[in-house]
Amino acid sequence: MGIKIGVLALQGAFREHSIMLDKLGASSTEVRKPEHLEGIDALVIPGGESTTIGKLMAEYGLLEPIREMGQKGLPILGTCAGMVLLADKIKGSDQPRIGLLEMEVVRNGFGRQVDSFEEELKIKALGEAPFRAVFIRAPYVERVGSSVEVLAAYGDRIVMVKKGKILACAFHPELTDDPRVHKYFLEIIETP
């Protein structure tokens, strides 16, 4: 395949993303410093604690280069905290963010850790079979701008969006055996 995908490895479930990508034949590399961004074809921003990841990104000088690369068309997949960091508005928070998606997210929108759950989601982009989504202290999107396409919702809460080559979901596709979200992301990367 020859695609090199950076996985932001500051905090959170980054190893699981690398394992999933490796299974699909894509090579992944951990990103901790700006120089680790050189030569990557795409970036995954994993789940974890969005405030901590945002502060570490600012501290290590990663926010601006990732924002610029995203504006220039770098494909990015953000899951859970990654979705929060990709939003331009985070309800009730001024934490550091990348802000590439015109949307407002609610952090921990489904409750605390004890309120974590799994749900069968209909995601047309992934085919007919439902996707078993794992929600852990998950955010949700309250509003999207006209440039952001909604791919999935849980009730009236938006949980998966796409804009160009940027894909974001509120759940953790890396914690399942179902590779379809990562496969879809690889298709996005390869689309000219």
Give a written overview of the molecule:
- This protein is an alpha/beta fold and 192 residues long.
- It has a single domain, classed as 3-Layer(aba) Sandwich (Rossmann fold).
- Helix content is 24%, strand content 31%.
- The protein is built from 5 helices and 12 strands.
- The strands form 3 sheets. Strands 2-1-3-4-12-11-10 form a 7-stranded mixed beta sheet.
Q: What attributes characterize this protein structure?
A:
192 residues; alpha/beta; Rossmann fold; seven-stranded mixed β-sheet; three-stranded mixed β-sheet; 12 strands; globular
| C-alpha-based Rg, rounded | 15 Å
| Unreliable stretches | none
Q: Looking at the chains present, what oligomeric state does this protein adopt?
A: single chain
Number of helices: 5
**CA distance, first residue to last residue:** 15 Å
What is the total number of structural domains? 1
Secondary-structure arrangement, i.e. CATH architecture: 3-Layer(aba) Sandwich
Sheet bearing the most strands, described?
A: 7 strands, mixed
Helix content: 10-25%
Estimate the global geometry from the Cα principal axes: globular
> How are the strands ordered across the major sheet?
2-1-3-4-12-11-10
What structural category arises from helix and sheet content? Answer: alpha/beta
What name goes with the CATH superfamily? Class I glutamine amidotransferase (GATase) domain
